[in-house]
Q: What sequence folds into this?
């Protein structure tokens, strides 16, 4: 089989694969289900293979995966056990597993220096400067991910309880949330006891839309969240002088710019490409270099 | 058997009982193990009976519990199922289950109007005014208990991660915490994933002691926490005009006064008695009224 480069963007809800020809041009794409190597590595492996076969199918190529080389960007790439398990079972001739953040960075910036902020349910900030990659933030909902949708939704529930107890003045946002829980704080407590980050995150769009209408609580929550993003962007600018390009990615990428400090807002540029494009580009670099 | 009044303070780590004579004078006390009616009602029942028998023993009385009347203050008294289960199995002739907050209020204020703030691992604020009891706050670690030791400890861990990532400037407190986790953020994330409120709460005394030495992060966390307590106290003052007595109870009661707003600090008085004394007083009132 001719040399093909496969890039894979493995996420918690779906797995995307793209196959590129020897020139690095994407000739087919495929998508399958969840590929979380930490929580369910076997399902992840199945979906990685499925997405890759679909990509070869779209390219009209009868694939022999054991002849192809793939680069995968996944969450949990820093957990050695999970990576070893998956790496040993991948169907490819050569494979490399990197962080989902790194393929997003490559997709957004290409080979240039610069920084990205991934602002979705969680948050993480990644900077490439002088051939080094710096990761800031992340660390998950419980003690990190400040500025992410889960923390934003969580803050909205907490505020609603303060409004219910008349500790803080109410607003339309608090009324909307308290209505949903029949004005019974115990229902909010029950929800919170079982809530996963994604469950809290479903309240983030509610906060965003009330903030857009000028709701006082929603605006305060958005500004608090944006100040966390500002702080992380400042920390990256202290490393590279704030000279590189800066992209926001993720579900809140379109929302944050108007809430950020001007010094960051004025630097923002749209990403060149997405994480899957980045994975393919890194695959080409990794395996062409190795001459495979 | 002569009429005896039993007061019980049932907590998550221990159960305390006191027995009073017909005049309401406490003549014996007993202590046993955990009595959480929500998580382990059968153990709670056993410890309630054990503490009561010890109290009768200290009083030198051969007890017939089925002739005595008891008032119990417990956490979870608003969860109907747990209360019904326990109430049906208590060994007493008459029994009444109220909140742990109510016996604390009675102990602190006697029959007077006024307010208490229980500031321990969690927080709750209770006001008695014009024959009504108002509860504010509480709601547990996930979406409430602002100003409590668990939230304070949690905030310290979160700050330490921001310091680790150089998003915020460090301090001796952050260094102390990062040292404990070998400067490996993943160890903090692992801790947080499994941590119960009490686990976070163990970092509260660390914050308190660093704040006393002027540590910048610890001072900011203490002031943030105290501002939540101030807000709750303000909310109670809006109900009663701030005219009644005000007591702080719980593990942080001695710590908060110096961080609170002057308008609250100047009103603080020491509690008259503890929650167990309050339970006995409420038992006397409840059962003497009923003529039992």
A:
């Amino acid at each position: 089989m001719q040399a093909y480069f496969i890039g894979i963007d493995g996420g918690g809800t779906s797995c995307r694969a793209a196959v590129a020809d020897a020139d690095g041009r994407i000739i087919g794409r495929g998508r399958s289900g969840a590929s979380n190597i930490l929580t369910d590595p076997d399902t992840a492996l199945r979906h990685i293979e499925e997405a890759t076969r679909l990509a070869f199918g779209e390219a009209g190529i009868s694939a022999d995966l054991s002849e192809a080389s793939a680069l995968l960007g996944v969450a949990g790439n820093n957990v050695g056990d999970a990576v070893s398990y998956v790496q040993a079972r991948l169907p490819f001739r050569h494979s490399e597993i990197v962080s989902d953040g790194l393929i997003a960075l490559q997709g957004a910036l290409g080979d240039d220096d610069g920084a990205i902020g991934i602002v979705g349910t969680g948050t993480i900030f990644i900077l490439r400067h002088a051939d080094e990659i710096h990761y800031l933030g992340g660390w998950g909902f419980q003690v990190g991910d400040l500025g992410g949708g889960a923390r934003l939704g969580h803050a909205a529930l907490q505020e609603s309880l303060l409004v219910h107890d008349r500790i803080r003045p109410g607003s339309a946002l608090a009324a909307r949330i308290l209505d949903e829980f029949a004005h019974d704080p115990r229902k909010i407590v029950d929800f919170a006891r079982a809530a996963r980050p994604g469950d809290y995150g479903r309240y983030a769009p509610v906060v965003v839309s009330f903030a857009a209408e000028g709701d006082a609580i929603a605006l305060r929550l958005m500004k608090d969240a944006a100040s966390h993003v500002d702080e992380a962007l400042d920390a990256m600018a202290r490393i590279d002088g704030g000279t590189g390009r800066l992209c926001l990615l993720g579900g809140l990428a379109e929302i944050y710019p108007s809430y950020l400090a001007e010094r960051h807002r004025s630097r923002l540029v749209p990403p060149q490409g997405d994480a899957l494009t980045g994975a393919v580009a890194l695959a080409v670099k990794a395996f062409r270099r190795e001459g495979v």
